[in-house]
Amino acid sequence: MPEIVKRDERPYVALRGKVAMDGIGAFADRMGEVVSWLAAHEIAPNDAPFFKYDVVDMEAELVLEIGFPVDDLHHGEGEIVTGVLPAGRYATVTHHGHPDGLVDATRDLLAWADAQGLEWDAHGTKWTARLEIYKSDPREVPDLNDWETDLEFKLKD
């Protein structure tokens, strides 16, 4: 069941890109670039990796960031960007199962918030913070059907 949680600011490091819906998997495969950049700069992630959907236009392209929360704000290079996930209220739900089910989980979270009369912190297709947080480590949970993923979408303050 979805709920509303309050989050503090969280600095992060990520890879930013523009992709079509059918290109998300190939973009996700580039997570290693973020891991390598963090290692080269001796920066340790402090939580699970995430996808941050900055622009969601299902008929054109998505602007995505894949990255990790870190302790302090840093400076990126090239496609590696840094930023801060904003503090505030987030509508959240946990999806248990294959990442293919996230489309339905997202639809259900959006519908739940609409039924509650909640407003997203978004302007058209541009979102302030729309996150998929991948809690399962593939090295420890190799079966995608056993994965746990949190959806966290920022609400308007």
Provide an overview of this structure.
- The chain has 157 residues and is α+β, with helices and mostly antiparallel strands.
- The protein has one domain: Alpha-Beta Barrel (Multidrug-efflux Transporter 1 Regulator Bmrr, Chain A).
- Helices cover 18% and strands 39% of the residues.
- The chain contains 3 helices and 10 strands, in the order ββααββββαββββ.
- It has helices at 24-28, 31-40, 102-115, and strands at 3-7, 10-19, 50-56, 62-69, 80-85, 88-96, 122-123, 126-127, 130-134, 148-154.
- An 8-stranded antiparallel β-sheet has the order 1-6-10-9-3-4-2-5.
- A hairpin with a 2-residue loop joins β7 (122-123) and β8 (126-127).
- It is globular.
- The chain starts with a strand and ends with a strand.
- 22% of the residues are buried.
- The model has no long low-confidence stretch (mean pLDDT 95).
Write the layout of secondary structure elements.
Layout: E1 3-7, E2 10-19, H1 24-28, H2 31-40, E3 50-56, E4 62-69, E5 80-85, E6 88-96, H3 102-115, E7 122-123, E8 126-127, E9 130-134, E10 148-154
Antiparallel strand pairs: 1-6, 2-4, 2-5, 3-4, 3-9, 6-10, 7-8, 9-10
